[in-house]
Amino acid sequence: MANSNVTHRQVSTLGSAPTKETDDHEPKSSSSKPIFNINISISFSSAFNIPSTLEAAAARILRNLGTFLPFYVIFIGVVLLITLIPQRKFSLFLLLVNTNFTVLYLLLLRAFPSSLLLHKWIDKRLIFAALAVATIVEMIVTDAGLHLFFTLVGTIPVILIHAVLQATEGYSVIEDQVTGANDYIAETV
Q1: Strand, coil or helix: what is 187?
Q2: How does it sit in the membrane (predicted)?
């Protein structure tokens, strides 16, 4: 590290007398400068706000459905899972089997990123739609159609409200932490 001619001064605590070394480096002017200059600026950036027009709301819904669709599906699945626990054991088992197939398919996509069969020839949307239809049919056949209906009636408005109010694009906590850490390192160096 380069020496930037920085002199360090000991800061005395309350009740202790200043030493001779600190007296030599004190400014001779009559106005005393504060020891610490702390500039606290609080910036509140909310990820949620109300869109100004209906067109902006519709565009935001479409953008957020594309961004958060896996999280919305997990939310619906968890609520459906919770509603099936007390009464519908076989429907719960079939829901977990479909969930396992979905997870295995996603792991297969990750395991073979250069596979032409998995990524080019087979459309992912087709596989996910087939799994969703299979889940709906299984819930209806096992007399859990009402559970599915009430789950969808309860969760879709929550999802739409989130999709309308979520304002930031590409919001990622991990990216914000990395950016914040890089900014902190740049400031301290």
Answers
A1: helix
A2: Multi-pass membrane protein
- Extract the tokens encoding 73: 């599906």
Q: What is the pLDDT of residues 21-34, one digit of tens each?
A: 555 555 555 565 65
Dihedral sign for Cα 137, 138, 143, 145, please: negative
Rounded to two decimals, what is the model's pTM?
Answer: 0.59
Place of tokens 């919770």: 82
**CA-to-CA dists, residue 140 to 41, 148, 149, angstroms:** 56, 8, 10
* Number of CB atoms found within 10 A of residue 80's CB: 23
Summarised one tens digit per residue, pLDDT across range 31-78 is 656 565 555 555 455 677 788 888 988 999 999 888 888 889 889 989
CB 10, CB 22: distance < 8 Å: yes
Question: What 3-state DSSP class applies to 14?
Answer: coil
Task: Delimit the domains of the chain by residue range.
Answer: 56-167
Would you say 88 and 143 are in contact if contact means Cβ atoms under 8 Å apart?
yes
Phi, psi (deg, nearest 5) at residue 124 = -65, -40
Is residue 74 within 8 A of residue 95, CB to CB? The reply is no
Extract the tokens encoding 71.
Answer: 């999280």
